[in-house]
Amino acid sequence: MEKQRKSQCTQKTISLLSPLGTIQVSGCENGVHTIQILMDVAPAERSGVAPLSCVVNDSPAETSPELQRCVEWLQAYFSEPQTTGSLPLPAFHHPALQGDSFTSNVLHVLLRDVKFGETVSYKRLAEMAGNPRAVRAVGGAMRRNPVPLLIACHRVISSSGQSGPYMSGKGDHLKQWLLTHERQRQEG
After folding, report:
1. Which of 1, 9, 33, 90 makes the best surface tag, with the fewest CB within 10 Å?
2. How far apart are CA 8 and CA 34, in angstroms?
3. Model pLDDT for residues 47-88, shown as the tens digit of each residue
């Protein structure tokens, strides 16, 4: 079996200011590699300045169409989130989202089947992914999600209805903010 070659991508990063703080989107001409939420500002502090905007803070002179599509999607998510279902998603170009691994499968099921404003339990997502006993593995897949927000791992909650950890427990307040944001925008 031949080893897969690592892609020789030229990655570029765009920095956005959002209600969650700074978000960095990295990718190449083939698609988005990662989205990182830097947690440099608490959501309440940021939202007082620019309630639901997401603006480009720093961007390379030239960006790929896929990175631009990602920026537009994120901007819509914060300002008019109910419209994101009709927007095209950028292509993904990260190894965790390629192939037929359990992580890739779970993340694609989440993307395809859990819509804006909905939540799903870790257990139910394991069932949807075809392995009802893999509840803990679903949690691992959420931790390895390279593109949070686009693949909305914040929508995965515990069976008891508790929100559960986000960003390895460091971003629990962000998960709450995202769930509330979607609930309020869906109702309004």
Report:
1. 1
2. 16
3. 444 457 788 888 777 889 999 999 999 999 999 888 888 999
Is 153 annotated in the active site? yes
The sign of the dihedral angle between the CA atoms of 104, 140, 145, 142 is positive
> What is the per-residue DSSP string for 13-79?
EEEEEETTEEEEEEEETTEEEEEEE---S-HHHHHHHSTT--EEEE--SS--HHHHHHHHHHHHHHH
Q: Which residues contact 6 (CB under 8 A, 6 or more apart)?
A: none
Decide: 83 and 120 in contact? Cβ < 8 Å: no
CA dihedral 109, 112, 116, 121 (to 10 degrees): -20
Half-sphere exposure of 184 (CA within 13 A, CB side): 11
Give the strand order in the sheet containing 31-37. Answer: 31-37, 21-28, 12-18, 55-58
Q: Which of 100, 92, 12 is nearest to 59 (CA)?
A: 12
Tally of CB atoms within 10 A around 159: 11
Share of the chain above pLDDT 90, in %: 62
Angle between helical axes of 102-113 and 135-143 (0-180°, round to 10): 80
3-state secondary structure of 165: coil
